[in-house]
Each structure stands twice: as C-alpha cells, then as structure tokens.
Amino acid sequence: MNLTGQPVRQKQVKPPKPARKALPPRSKKRLAYLSSPARQDGKRHMTAVAQLPCLVCGAWPVEVHHEGKPRSDMSVLPLCPHHHRREFGPDAYHYSPRAFYAAHGSSEALLARVTQQLRALDDDSLCAWF
Fold first, then answer.
1. For the segment 87-104, what is each residue's pLDDT rounded down to a tens digit?
2. Residue 54: what are its φ and ψ, rounded to 5°?
C-alpha cells in the first residue's frame, strides 16, 4: 500500500522495439561516381565557393546551396544560414525560392556572379605570387 492507501501498481514492461533495418549498400554506379575525377572536381569547386561571402549580404561563413536540376556540384551558391535555411523566414531561399529569385535575380544570374567572384579570387591569389 502507498501513502494514500491504494495498492502499489507495478510498472508494465513494454515489449522490445524491433531492430532497425540496415542502410542499403551503395550501388556500383554510386561508388564509381564517388571515386571519379568529376566528383573530385566538384568537391574542389564547392570548397572554393565555400570561401566566398554570402551572395546576398556578404556575411561569412556560408553554406553551399546546390542550384538547378539535376543537382550538380559545379552549380552551387554561397549563402549564409539566414539566406539559406527555411527557419529564418521570408528572406531565406528554402522559405520561398520564387520570392528569393524575385528579390535577388535569376538562378543563372546568381551562378554568373559566383563565377565572376571565383575568377576575381583566382586573379588576387595569382597577384600575391608576384
């Protein structure tokens, strides 16, 4: 009996949860891509884009946003979390892509700005050597 005079109840034992399924193995096609020169070029390009400031506000650090369909590691934009993630509201890309493009330009124009910034970055780094 407990302090209120009622019988003590035993905690019911729940049945164990079933084991989770294992992740599916990667396909041969996916493994071939991951080790391909195209993937290595894409990783280098995304690393270079990650060094740029946000296209919208100039803030840093940035998140690399894949642009276009099909997705390619060569068509990415540097966006700060405020302009990338949905939870930051109407200025963010993932909140409303249509409103984002209306405010900041088309996808092609944004990708052209990234290319221009990368060229300027390459020119600056070459000038540092001389």
1. 888 889 999 999 999 999
2. -60, 135
Backbone CA torsion sign across 86, 51, 48, 26:
negative
pLDDT at position 104: 93
pTM: 0.70
Q: Give dist(CA 55, CA 78) in Å, integer.
A: 6
* Gap between the Cα atoms of 70 and 42, Å rounded: 14
Q: Which residues, at least 6 apart from 80, have a Cβ–Cβ distance to it below 8 Å?
A: 54, 56, 57, 59, 60, 61, 62, 63
Tokens 């650090």 identify what position? 61
User: In angstroms, rounded to a whole number, what is the distance separating the alpha carbons of residues 50 and 76?
Assistant: 9
**Rounded Cα–Cα distance for residues 70 and 72 (Å):** 6
Contacts for 59-68: CB closer than 8 Å, 24+ residues apart:
65/93, 67/107, 67/110, 67/111, 68/107
